[in-house]
């Protein structure tokens, strides 16, 4: 069986998952019954983007071309990018299906791997408003429940769980809102830029009385963009709070040009690609092959085994997503006729204080499971919406939690027999890692695996071992 670029781990009593992507984990059976062991960051995005492109595409080209493996392919992909690309800046403090709310974006032009031109969109709401004045495109049903009179816009267009599908829909809105055709779509969230700040160091902006670092970046910039800027009557009139970019950009660019940080920038970029804080989608087949080789494209994968993908969408829940911690318990019972009964329990704890920009985490969860799965029962869930997406059966439900509140949502479903058992668990872009506890049970034996879902993982179980 294809290892999906990961590795197999020999059966051991206590498994420590090795961070590869996606990771193969083989687990040993036990005798059943025995003891079982944050919109504001968008300005920074815009400045850093250009700096990264300058560094990656203009420096040490001949050295990088000699690199092999994942790192070498990333460099070759960047150098071969030739055309216009739409860059999405997603705020994962307001989590959406492909990584976060689209608060801002840029269109960049690359020629032979060099940055030729770029244009940043400083207010996505202005474009959206022009579109809704002309026509009202339908919103997805869960969004319609929150905004009954709302219309589809670019800022809400990343609803599809599969990024290749979402990228096409985003580009469609971009064209309708006055943009041009692009050769690819790239999505980046705030976690990546917090990691970059750890490399380039704090940024001082005395004119704003700010010293930005990884610890305060989201909080400080968010307050300035959404509150402080508009306290100035002139700022409210102009309605362009992202002018801070003009002052931040030269500092970021100068820092990232330093050859001493290039290696760390590449390493951090690869880490964020694996953890889905960066997603890539290219129309050029050769570039797409590299993306697919390393699973950098945010696709919903196909598998001949069991499958699970939890995808959350914060809909009107303020910037609360990173304050919610999730723990997943997943038990699969193998029946004598080969059928599989699954019990999934999602425990969500809101650790925030409810003060702005935090709030009630108004959240819609979609669980993607093998096609043909049948819902058996639920607990803690008022309503389940049944649908299909990307070749999977989808169970959708509201999983809202208030600050300092913990709720558990349980769903039981059945899938057809499988010739061999292995479980592919996909991580949502932009999300923090989930604690994951997995059991596979028969009448006489039980297998167990516990670890973090910080990237896609493939858990393999040898049903013949003793």
Description of the molecule:
- Helix 1 (about 40-60) packs parallel to helix 10 and helix 7 (about 190-200) runs antiparallel to helix 11.
- This protein is an alpha+beta fold.
- The chain has 2 domains: about 25-35 and about 300-460, Immunoglobulin-like; about 40-295, no CATH class.
- The protein is globular.
- It has helices at about 40-60, 60-65, 70-80, 125-135, 140-145, 165-175, 190-200, 215-230, 235-240, 245-255, 260-275, 285-295; strands spanning about 25, 30, 85-90, 100-110, 115-120, 185-190, 205, 210, 280, 305-315, 325-335, 340-350, 365-370, 375-380, 385-390, 390-400, 405-415, 420-425, 435-440, 445-455, 455-460.
- The chain starts with about 20 loop residues before the first strand and ends in a 5-residue tail after the last strand.
- A 7-stranded mixed beta sheet has the order 1-21-18-10-13-16-15, with no helix packed on it.
- Strand 19 and strand 20 (about 445-455) form a beta hairpin.
Give structural attributes.
seven-stranded mixed beta sheet, Immunoglobulin-like, disordered N terminus, 466 residues, 32% strand, 2 domains
Short recap of the structure:
The protein has helices spanning 42-58, 61-64, 69-80, 124-134, 141-146, 163-176, 190-200, 217-231, 233-238, 244-256, 262-274, 285-293; strands at 23-27, 29-31, 83-91, 101-111, 114-121, 184-189, 203-205, 210-212, 278-282, 306-314, 324-334, 340-350, 363-370, 374-379, 385-389, 392-398, 406-415, 422-426, 434-441, 445-453, 457-461. The protein is of the alpha+beta class.
């Amino acid at each position: 069986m294809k290892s999906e670029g990961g590795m197999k781990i020999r059966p051991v009593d206590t498994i420590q998952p090795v961070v590869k992507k996606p990771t193969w984990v083989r687990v040993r059976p036990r005798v059943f019954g025995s003891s079982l062991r944050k919109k504001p960051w968008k300005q920074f995005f815009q400045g850093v983007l250009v700096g990264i492109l300058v560094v990656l595409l203009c420096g040490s080209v001949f050295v990088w071309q000699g690199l092999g493996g994942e790192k070498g392919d990333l460099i070759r992909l960047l150098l071969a990018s030739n055309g216009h690309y739409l860059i999405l800046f997603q705020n994962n403090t307001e989590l959406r299906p492909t990584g976060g709310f689209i608060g801002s974006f840029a269109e960049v032009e690359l020629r032979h791997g060099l940055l030729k031109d770029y244009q940043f969109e400083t207010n996505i709401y202005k474009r959206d408003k022009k579109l809704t004045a002309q026509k009202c495109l339908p919103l997805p049903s869960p969004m319609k429940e929150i905004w009954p009179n709302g219309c589809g816009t670019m800022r809400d267009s990343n609803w599809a769980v599969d990024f290749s599908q979402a990228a096409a829909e985003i580009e469609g809105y971009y064209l309708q809102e006055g943009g041009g055709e692009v050769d690819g779509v790239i999505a980046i969230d705030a976690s990546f830029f917090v990691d970059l700040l750890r490399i380039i160091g704090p940024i001082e902006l005395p004119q704003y009385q700010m010293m930005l670092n990884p610890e305060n970046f989201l909080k400080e910039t968010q307050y300035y963009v959404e509150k402080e800027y508009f306290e100035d009557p002139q700022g409210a009139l102009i309605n362009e709070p992202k002018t801070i970019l003009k002052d931040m950009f030269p500092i970021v660019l100068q820092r990232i040009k330093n050859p001493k940080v290039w290696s760390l920038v590449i390493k951090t970029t690869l880490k964020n690609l694996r953890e889905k804080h960066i997603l890539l989608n290219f129309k050029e087949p050769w570039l797409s092959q590299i993306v697919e080789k390393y699973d950098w494209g945010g696709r919903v994968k196909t598998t001949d085994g069991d499958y699970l993908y939890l995808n959350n969408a914060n809909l009107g829940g303020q910037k609360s997503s990173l304050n919610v911690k999730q723990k997943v318990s997943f038990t699969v019972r193998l029946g004598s006729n080969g059928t599989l009964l699954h019990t999934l329990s999602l425990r969500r704890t809101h650790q925030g204080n409810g003060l702005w920009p935090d709030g009630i985490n108004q959240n819609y969860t979609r669980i993607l499971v093998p096609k043909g799965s049948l819902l058996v029962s639920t607990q803690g869930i008022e309503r389940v919406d049944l649908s299909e997406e990307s070749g999977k059966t989808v169970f959708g439900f509201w999983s809202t939690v208030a600050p300092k509140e913990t709720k558990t949502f349980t769903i039981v479903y059945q899938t057809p027999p499988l010739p061999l058992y292995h479980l592919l668990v996909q991580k949502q872009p932009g999300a923090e890692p989930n604690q994951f506890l997995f059991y596979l049970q028969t009448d006489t034996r039980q297998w167990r695996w516990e670890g973090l879902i910080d990237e896609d993982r493939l858990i393999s179980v040898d049903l013949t071992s003793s």
